[in-house]
């Protein structure tokens, strides 16, 4: 009962912020047309680490998020998440792709070239759930193969990505449950949250880097009474903005 009450409270908070009409939500139907799919990237991990780290928090996080997006926005999102490798040609069918725990990903040169092509052709990559100096170096080691000549910069507060469905002026670190159990909001030496990005030549944001944060836990634990609801609210707001940006820029 507490879980049900919590989930309804979360939906009420987000719906109020969004100004959405609950009667306008897209109907759930296996046969309905879907304009958007949640796509999670399958990648190879660095030697010695978990081979399935790309699957962290799945499928619960993805399924919770899909339900929330359908309820709280007008995005016609598909019922089921999609998991695809970088070299799969269907990558180009989707404007938005998510990669988790990228502090331990390992992109080959062909994979980096494919990701570069995807992003320059209009794709949008969201990375999440990596923390501290060591994992940052692991992330950029592969990201430099993707864009050796493009800087990673802090996304300015005025960027449209923060002002689409939601105005996100106040930045809040979104922790994972493991950190909260320890009484903190950070992991390793990742004390401060960072929203960083990579832009194309026209000023379009191609990559959003959620560093020292765990959006995936905020989705997965939306109905967990032990996870503070304000972190889930923030996680959903950021993610919906990212999705809208990917579909409109």
What is this entry, summarized?
This protein is of the alpha/beta class.
List descriptors.
single chain, 249 residues, alpha/beta, Rossmann fold, 7 helices, 35% helix, 13% strand, disordered N terminus
Your description of this structure?
The chain has a single domain, classed as Rossmann fold (3-Layer(aba) Sandwich). The longest helix is centred in the C-terminal third of the chain and has 20 residues. The strands form two sheets. A five-stranded mixed β-sheet has the order 3-4-7-6-5. A two-stranded parallel ribbon has the order 1-2. Helix 1 packs across helix 7 and helix 3 packs across helix 4. 37% of the residues are buried. Helices cover 35% and strands 13% of the residues. By secondary structure, it is of the alpha/beta class. The chain contains seven helices and seven strands; from the N terminus they run αβαββαβαβαββαα.
Helicity level: 25-40%
- Rg value: 17 Å
Biggest sheet character: 5 strands, mixed
Structural class: alpha/beta
Q: Name the overall outline.
A: globular
Mean pLDDT metric: 89
* Tally of structural domains: 1
Arrangement of strands in the largest sheet: 3-4-7-6-5
Continuous helix count: 7
Strand residue percentage: 5-15%
- SSE succession: HEHEEHEHEHEEHH
Count the beta strands: 7
* Euclidean distance between termini CA atoms: 41 Å
């Amino acid at each position: 009962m507490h879980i049900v009450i919590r989930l309804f409270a979360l939906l009420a908070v987000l719906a109020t912020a969004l100004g959405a009409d609950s009667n306008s939500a897209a109907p759930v139907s296996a046969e309905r047309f879907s304009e958007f799919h949640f796509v999670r990237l399958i990648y190879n991990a660095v030697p010695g680490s978990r081979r399935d780290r790309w699957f962290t928090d799945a499928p619960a996080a993805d399924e919770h998020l899909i339900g929330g997006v359908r309820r709280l926005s007008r995005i016609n999102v598909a019922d089921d998440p999609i998991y695809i490798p970088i070299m799969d040609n269907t990558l180009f069918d989707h404007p938005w792709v998510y990669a988790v725990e990228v502090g331990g990903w390992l992109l080959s040169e062909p994979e980096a070239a494919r990701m570069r092509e995807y992003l320059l052709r209009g794709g949008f990559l969201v990375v999440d759930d990596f923390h501290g100096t060591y994992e940052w170096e692991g992330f950029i080691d592969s990201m430099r193969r993707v864009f050796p000549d493009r800087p990673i910069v802090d996304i300015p507060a005025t960027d449209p990505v923060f002002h689409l469905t939601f105005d996100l002026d106040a930045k809040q670190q979104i922790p994972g449950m493991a950190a909260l159990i320890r009484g903190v909001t950070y992991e390793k030496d990742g004390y401060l949250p960072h929203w960083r990005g990579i832009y194309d030549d026209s000023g379009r944001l191609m990559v959003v880097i959620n560093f020292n944060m765990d959006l995936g836990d905020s989705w997965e634990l939306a109905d967990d009474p032990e996870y503070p609801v304000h972190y889930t609210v923030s996680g959903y707001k950021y993610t919906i903005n990212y999705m809208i940006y990917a579909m409109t820029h």
